[in-house]
Amino acid sequence: MRLQEGLGAVRRERVLPADREATWELLADPGALEGWLADEVELEELAEGAEGVFRWRDGAERRVVVEEVEDARRLAFRWEDPRGDEPDTLVELTLDDHEDGTLLRVVELPLVVLHAYGAELPVAAGGAGGGPLLVAA
Amino acid sequence: MTPPATTDDAAAGAVFTALADPTRRRIVRALAERDTVTASSLAGELPVSRQAVAKHLAALRAAGLAVAEPAGRETRYRLTPAPFTDAMAWMAHAGARWDDRLARLERRLAER
Questions:
Q1: Is A108 part of the contact surface with chain B (CB cutoff 8 Å)?
Q2: Interface of B with A in 16-35 (CB under 8 A)
Q3: How would CATH label the architecture of B9-111?
Q4: pTM of this prediction?
Q5: ipTM value of the model?
Q6: A43-82: pLDDT as tens digits
């Protein structure tokens, strides 16, 4: 068993076949999120503090609060399962230029973990450093 | 399609919280290395007081990661790893859903 910093964080990385601006178009608009991030997106705008609901065909639902939007770079949101079946989590999607397109990094972290680590997380205390909101990959 | 979530996923949060503390992770490692252990013996090998060890053991018990067993005048603690499995299952489940989402995103971008 390996216990390490950032335990509980789900991480994914994928190189996408489009430049950062084109990729961001599918992240920056609630309508564009529909169909890949969720099957139904109820969110007026993608702006810090905006609240909405994401739904999936299998019946899953998440209440969503947008935490951070950095143009063509980063989107972070909190989501909660209204049924309480899953831990509330913070999701961060980060885009970086890559020779084959765009590198998308996803980190999903239960909020209880974020609170437990508190200031130990590089930028959990605020975006002043300009680094990622969650632990670095 | 990934399997539906279970209530075990909610318990995963408690496990991750318990393990967010580095001392508690050391205690879990110590518990994993032997059958049972006392708070005093843990305090003897870790740079923390017996009181602090007792507090950490209480947190691990609250997360379902350890049980206390009276043995004469002392209490021995045993690791109960089932919640780890639930926590790992949540991570696998959440990860599989991201794999699905990212595959859909990639297809969308390829279609443009």
A1: yes
A2: 16-17, 19-21, 25, 28-29, 32
A3: Orthogonal Bundle (1.10)
A4: 0.76
A5: 0.83
A6: 999 999 999 999 999 999 999 999 999 999 999 999 999 9
